[in-house]
């Protein structure tokens, strides 16, 4: 990456597709592929997008993952706020009776 270059933009297009625009190098392209983005030939280079019809939750998770990987690699990234995945919810302990400890089968006597 060269300092001062334009950021990599990850946005939702007019048709609902998640796409990438901006300048990126081979390493950034590899990170985008790892996050599930497809590279399709177009008239002016490549059209970089996520697969269609996998649902907004999946698209948001993969767009966020791509942005996080690119940011960790020190690329300037602009992620559309509507694509930011929800953070995982905290796991709460189940309510109810506590777990039982192992006991001897009913036909056996304790010594």
Question: How are the SSEs ordered, and which strands pair?
Answer:
Elements: E1 8-12, E2 18-21, H1 26-34, E3 38-42, E4 45-49, H2 56-72, E5 77-79
Please explain how this structure is put together:
- There is one protein chain.
- With 111 residues, the chain is of the alpha+beta class.
- 23% of the residues lie in helices and 20% in strands.
- The chain has a 5-stranded mixed beta sheet, covered by helices on one side.
- The radius of gyration is 23 Å and the shape is elongated.
- 21% of the residues are buried.
Order of helices and strands: EEHEEHE
Give the oligomeric state. Answer: single chain
Helical fraction equals: 10-25%
Number of continuous helical runs: 2
The span between the termini is 73 Å
Sheet-strand content, in percent, reads 15-25%
What form results from the Cα inertia axes?
elongated
**Rounded radius of gyration (Å):** 23 Å
Strands of the largest sheet, in order across it?
Answer: 3-4-2-1-5
Overall SS class:
alpha+beta
Number of strands: 5
Mean pLDDT: 83
Low-confidence stretches: none
Q: Main sheet, how many strands, which sense, barrel? A: 5 strands, mixed
What attributes characterize this protein structure?
23% helix; 5-stranded mixed beta sheet; 111 residues; alpha+beta; 5 strands; 2 helices; single chain
């Amino acid at each position: 990456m060269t300092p001062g270059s334009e950021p990599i933009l990850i946005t939702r297009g007019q048709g609902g597709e998640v796409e990438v625009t901006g300048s990126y190098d081979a390493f950034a392209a590899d990170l985008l592929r790892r996050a599930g983005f497809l590279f399709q030939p177009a008239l002016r280079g490549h059209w970089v997008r996520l697969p269609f019809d996998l649902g907004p939750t999946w698209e948001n998770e993969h767009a966020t993952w791509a942005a996080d990987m690119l940011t960790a690699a020190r690329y300037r990234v602009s992620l559309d706020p509507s694509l930011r995945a929800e953070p995982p919810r905290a796991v709460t302990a189940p309510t109810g009776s506590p777990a039982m400890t192992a006991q001897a089968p009913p036909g056996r006597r304790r010594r």
